[in-house]
Amino acid sequence: MEDSSPSKAIISTDAVRHNVARLRQLCGVPVMAVVKADGFGLGAERVARAALAGGATELGVATCEEALALRSAGVEEPILAWLIHDDAPLADAVNGSIRLSMTSVAQLEKIANIAATQHRCAEIELELETGMHRSGAARSDWEELFAAASDAENRGSVRVIGVWTHLAGADRLAYSAALTLLDEGLARARR
Prior knowledge:
8 helices; 2 domains; 6-stranded parallel sheet; about 190 residues; TIM Barrel; alpha/beta
């Protein structure tokens, strides 16, 4: 059957590279290019390489499997995987120097144990729930997560690279509320 839809997507890696360079220029800070879901259906490796050529300093993907596929393709830059499911290949991720996002003490302890077994130091980020209600450590669990991260860092099994959140929306009210909570979380994490 012939497709009668006049819609089509034409992807320009030159445009990806240009847009990342422009974003970095405007923001003046390092840029993580998110290439989850096979680069949003455009080819993760293709989009990743274009974004890195434009000045992205790291990549973000949803799963360990996506991150490991990029590593297997020869991507050496830092890659963050933020959805850690029960069957995730965590040992492979730690061994492949994939940065992992932690949302609970149980996850953190699992990663710390894997890293210790491999005689490695896993890079992690701590995700805080600030309104998305889909992932991230609940506000009531922040202190325990920060303490566990500090303990694991002192043991040399993890290195906390950052604390982040997934914004629930782009409207000012939701955005402002999330940033207020994130600021609170960052202040508590620094203690």
